[in-house]
Each structure stands twice: as C-alpha cells, then as structure tokens.
Write a structure and sequence with these properties.
By secondary structure, the protein is an alpha/beta fold. The protein is about 40% helix and about 15% strand.
C-alpha cells in the first residue's frame, strides 16, 4: 500500500463541496493507494468535521486529519493588498494558508494540494511521482492567458513579463516542501504579502507564482478540466498556450473537473450534474452557500414580475381612463 499525502484548505462554508470532493477522490482511488488527507482550517465546526470523517470512513483507502490554523496569517491577510478580498467574502485567509504547507507538514518532503470545488474523475496518486528537480511547485498552466489579457492585468510590467508564460492556476499543486524549507521560501511569500505595491487579485495564485518564479513546473491540462472550455473553443478569436489536442484531451479525458467559475451549488454550471449526483447520493444538506445565489435569483425574478405587473397596471388604468374620456365625450 502506497501512502499519498494530500491536503486541502477551506473554511466552514465549504464543508459540503469538500464532502463531494472527498467522496470523488476516494471513490476513484486505486486498490494499492492510501490517501493521508489533511484539512487546514480556522473555523470548521465539530459537527462538520464529523460529517467529513463519516464520508471518508466509508472507504478503506483514506484517513482524514484536521489541523486548526486559527490566527495563522490573520495580521498579514488584514493588511495585505488583496484587491479588496480581505474586506469581502469572496476569499478568506484560508485562501493563502495553502501556500504555507511547508510549515504544517514537516514529516513530508513533498505533498499534493487540492481545492475542493472539484470532482476527481480518476486516481491522481501518480502526481506524487512527478519529477520536481529544482522546482518549488508544479501545477496546471493557465490556458486562458493569451486570450484573456485581463487575467494578469493587475500585475506591473515586471511581474507580468516574468509570469505570462508560466503562471499556474489553483485547483491542484504538487509542492516540493523540502526545497521550500531549504530556501526559506515562505519568508519570501510573507514579503510579497506585505508589499503593497503588489496587487494580489488571485491571492494564493499570485503569491505562489511570484515567490516561485523560474522554479515552476507543469502538469497536463486534464488535471484541471474546465467545464466552460468547450464554449470558449467555439470562439474564433480564442488562443492558448496549449495545442488543440491538449485542450480537447482535457475535456474528453479529465482527471479532475474544476468548477473554477460557475459553482454547481450556485446555479447550473457546466457538468454540474456529476457534482449533484454525488451530493444526492450522500444525502448532503443544503447550506447557506446554496441559498445565497438562489435567493438572489428568486428576488430578481420577483422584482421583474413586480415591474411587469406595475407596467400592466399602469397601462390598464390609462386604457380605462381613455375609455372613460371617450365615453363621456361621445355622450356630450
């Protein structure tokens, strides 16, 4: 049995997406693979920890451990230039804790990191065999960089030129913890966070890419299959660093589906039915992250119908008055 360390970093709100991700991971695991699973968190309740433990316990090829990071990096998150994310709820401090895996996993020389807004479509244990050489990290190169210039428009010219051909997205990483510790890379990350001249629009991604410059490796695009990619491929102006074959292979043979934009629990994202099948199988509860978008959509519909009703009412009143006018006018 081969042990594969993998960790996740999310807050209490993402418990249900994590439950779906954990089930999909272990459901696709090879017989000779055992996942040592870790969750870095600051606020996951005991109830939700038990929910996740119960799902992992359904399998014999995984063990789940929780590591409380409460207070870790809080002062940096509150002061760092994260393009307003530290004053909104789009991201939390858990978004950058993942960059500091070397501090939490001293027992490992390398480890896999994964987001939880994903579905594992295949076993990914082979990732730990990737040749890291002198690389700090390997991940999936952003396939939209050439087409969407806005992806890195927040960076100054120096960092843009440095990263435009090597910027890796989130979703899945393999981190060379040994080399990160040897080179004290986490100190560099703290300096990047503290540098207000560096805008961090994509908090974890910007930090890790800038810190690891020139020592980033790549894994195939099918380790992060984007559900909306087929639509983009129909656009005449779409270009990418990836070949047409690589782009379509990520669609046809996905290792991981990453709901990086549209989330299944918000609305009908592409390939959402796979996510919902697992959700329904596990009989998971709908939490506030489900209701927020739906409530917004519902309110929008109500508002729309109210406007239409008011327009109809005004027109009806005007027609009534017009009829009355002509009626009395003709009688006279």
């Amino acid at each position: 049995m081969k042990n594969i360390p993998i960790f996740f970093s999310f807050n209490n709100d993402y418990t249900i997406p994590a439950a779906v991700a954990f089930f999909s991971l272990l459901n696709k695991t090879k017989e000779d693979i055992f996942y040592d699973m870790f969750v870095l968190h600051s606020d996951i309740t005991s109830e939700n920890q038990n929910l996740l433990q119960d799902i992992v316990a359904k399998f014999k090829n995984g063990k789940l451990n929780f590591i409380n990071t409460e207070g870790f990096l809080d002062e940096f998150w509150n002061k760092g230039n994260f393009e307003g994310h530290n004053t909104r709820n789009q991201f939390t401090v858990d978004a950058i804790v993942k960059c500091f895996g070397a501090s939490f996993f001293l027992q490992y020389e390398k480890i896999i990191y994964s987001d939880v807004d994903i579905i594992f479509m295949d076993d990914i244990s082979d990732l730990l065999n990737v040749n890291l050489d002198e690389k700090y990290i390997v991940g999936v190169k952003n396939p939209f960089m050439k087409w969407n210039q806005n992806e890195l428009s927040h960076l100054n010219k120096e960092y843009y030129e440095m990263l435009k051909d090597s910027y890796i997205g989130g979703g899945i990483w393999v981190m060379n913890l040994k080399k990160i510790r040897e080179d004290n890379l986490e100190q560099k990350m703290l300096e990047i966070i503290n540098d207000d001249s560096i805008i961090k629009r994509w908090p974890d991604q910007d930090i890790i890419n800038i810190a690891c410059k020139n020592k980033i490796g790549f894994i195939p695009l099918n380790y992060i299959s984007y559900p909306y990619l087929p639509d983009l491929l129909q656009k005449e102006d779409f270009i990418s660093d990836y070949s047409r074959e690589e782009l379509y292979d990520s669609i046809i043979n996905p290792k991981i589906i990453h709901y990086a934009a549209g989330k299944p629990w918000h609305y009908n994202a592409k390939k959402a039915e796979i996510w919902w099948d697992i959700f329904n199988y596990l009989k998971l509860p709908k939490t506030k992250i489900f209701t927020k978008q739906k409530e917004n959509n519902f309110n929008k519909k109500i508002k729309k119908y109210k406007i239409l009703f008011n327009i109809f009412l005004i027109i009806s009143i005007l027609l009534f008055l017009l009829n009355m006018f002509f009626y009395f006018y003709l009688i006279k």
